[in-house]
Amino acid sequence: MTDDTAAAPDEVVRDTPLAERVEAILLIIDEPIGLIALAAAVGAPVPAVRQTVETLVDDYDGNGHGPRRGFELREVGGGWRLYVRDDHDDLVAEFVGGQAPARLSQAALETLAVIAYKQPVTRSQVASIRAVNVDSVVRTLLARGLITELFADSETGAINYGTTDALLQHLGINSLDDLPPISPLLDDGADGFDEPTIR
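^ Segregation and condensation protein B, sequence as received from the core. Prediction below:
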């Protein structure tokens, strides 16, 4: 007679190779983890976890059957954690620096929102809406590639601005139609007025 009941979660964990469970925990921790805490996390005896950690160290260092990895399992402050190897520090720093552009200021975010929702729009129109000079902010947004010059007004010569595909990528949307409707976010002003008094 077969048992059709599903295995309990702790049984599934015990059926998974210990090295896989240890690696899974090591991949998600932010701080070094001690052997006792690691053993508790993976549901295994401390001696078995210690041996597994030692095996992983050798494996990552290329002392086993495979090549050396770009990362290592290092003991720091009484705990274990995965680290990039020292000889790849410059490579990783350059990559991370290129992937993490400086954050936009509040003024830049507000100006970008006006352009996104009102485009095509001129610099003076944006300044009128925000009630501040936006020249430097517009230059910043242009330099970041988040907005672009669309066309010049035939009568005034004023440049009209719009957003770029780079902004869509940063927002994770396919088109400007995916922007949330702005009217529900705006105060209609009704709360600021008293009901009229009939005399």
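DSSP finds nine helices and five strands in the chain.
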